[in-house]
């Protein structure tokens, strides 16, 4: 399976300013294993993770984006992965409810951050819901992953709380335990054009693959090698794409489609199964 041909290589991609919430990996460690990437016996450099995180933050700032931060908490080594703790659309916040008990306490720290920063429309889910880890906003649809973490019942809950249409996607490969390590949005939908996405087909069930082909026939399809370095755990502002430096084939495809890739190092963060997107919650306030 190959990506659709580039329809217009000269397409001018337009960046839009974003606002992100991040958490420094001050207490980063791999002390338990809740996904196939985590090996507590493998050495981890907290200082290295902090350097990677700071380089990512500086990349966002250099590109003109706003970065808010939440204070890291001792005993929560995965709190750096802020994307898992909230989904914000039009100023409405759907919080998180983690499947793994080791991460459960993170959700309330993020709820408090939202309250302290003026958000009032906040709902904490009843179903297991790992937020932007499994919920991806495309501009007109909320793509919702399930299979390993987020409960399928959380998809209906997200639709009710956020007031947007939800499309359920079935993940089948445990290495790609969240939607955000198998798919990301390059350009959001507009009233006259569909979203442009990239994804790794084999991470999904056959029916979901057919659905994605129907919804996004011009998607960029990642190789197994690019998926295996968490190359799809990426962030795009519509033009600039921040992704792991090892995702070289994906980088070449992005260039061909008119995007500007910004490869970053996630050597330490990847040891916990995370990358640029995992470290980045987008704050989509009311416009």
Give a verbal description of the structure.
This protein is α/β, with parallel strands linked by helices. It has a single domain (about 20-280), classed as 5-stranded Propeller (L-arginine/glycine Amidinotransferase, Chain A), CATH 3.75.10. The protein has six helices and 15 strands. The model has no long low-confidence stretch (mean pLDDT about 95).
Helix-strand layout with pairing:
Elements: E1 19-23, H1 46-62, E2 66-70, E3 87-89, E4 92-94, H2 106-116, E5 122-123, E6 135-137, E7 142-146, H3 153-162, E8 166-170, E9 183-187, E10 196-199, H4 206-215, E11 220-221, H5 224-228, E12 235-236, E13 240-244, H6 248-256, E14 260-264, E15 281-282
Parallel strand pairs: 1-2, 4-5, 7-8, 10-11, 13-14
Antiparallel strand pairs: 1-15, 3-4, 6-7, 9-10, 12-13
Protein name: Amidinotransferase
GO biological process, one term: L-arginine deiminase pathway
GO molecular function, one term: arginine deiminase activity
Keywords:
287 residues; L-arginine/glycine Amidinotransferase, Chain A; alpha/beta; 15 strands; 3-stranded mixed β-sheet; 22% helix
Strand content: 15-25%
Superfamily at the CATH H level? Answer: L-arginine/glycine Amidinotransferase, Chain A
Shape, principal axes of CA atoms: globular
| CATH fold topology | L-arginine/glycine Amidinotransferase, Chain A
Placed side by side, the strands forming the largest sheet appear as 2-1-15
Number of individual domains: 1
